[in-house]
Amino acid sequence: MNPLKLVAVSAGLGLPSSTRLLADRLAEAARSHLAGDHEVEVAVVDLRDLATDIANAMVAGFPGARLREAIQVVTDADGLIAVTPIFNASYSGLFKSFFDVIDNTALAGKPVLIAATGGSARHSLALEHAMRPLFAYLRAIVVPTAVYAASEDWGTGGDASTDALAGRVDRAARELAGLVAGRPASAALAVEEVLVPFEQQLAALRP
After folding, report:
1. pLDDT tens digits for 148-201?
2. d(Cα 172, Cα 145) in Å, to the nearest integer?
3. pTM here?
4. Domain residue extents for the chain
5. By CB atoms within 10 Å of each CB, which of 70, 101, 164, 188 scores lowest?
6. CB contact at 8 A, 134 and 99
7. Which PANTHER family is this protein grouped with (predicted)?
């Protein structure tokens, strides 16, 4: 059997980056949930290194070689982890631009775990009002648990009233692993096959 491919996309800008750290933790947790029954390959696409390539692709209309390679890695993934810092209550421009240059059918039927980092827990709803709709539009299968890590979440264990970061990471990773392990290899193709072009739907209505 071919190994399962997990790919984490990190839009962190700093060095070191809490966004990249969260992406790594989620990828490792998902890998560990799959590793008992599957061979797993993990790759990370760091958008910081591709910022110029992404900007050029937005202007020129086509990606260069490095960006094409990154897009192929994401397209070939069995499961995707997408992590962005939150700016002005939404995902970063770099994050959005990367997914704008990917064909809008490339993620159809693909399991995706969404996650974000920010300075305050007040921005956690950006996962639901910005990120989840983005991947729903791309027809990805987004896991129920989204993971947000505020500055105060790092290094804390939580309490009886707080679901600690480690617990959220584990739950989301387990959900992603379940979808990846149970997803047929032809799932993305199957999604495309059931889509009927609008013109064909109209033709069927004509007498």
Report:
1. 999 888 765 544 444 589 999 999 999 999 999 986 444 444 444 444 555 555
2. 5
3. 0.83
4. 4-205
5. 164
6. yes
7. FMN REDUCTASE (NADPH)
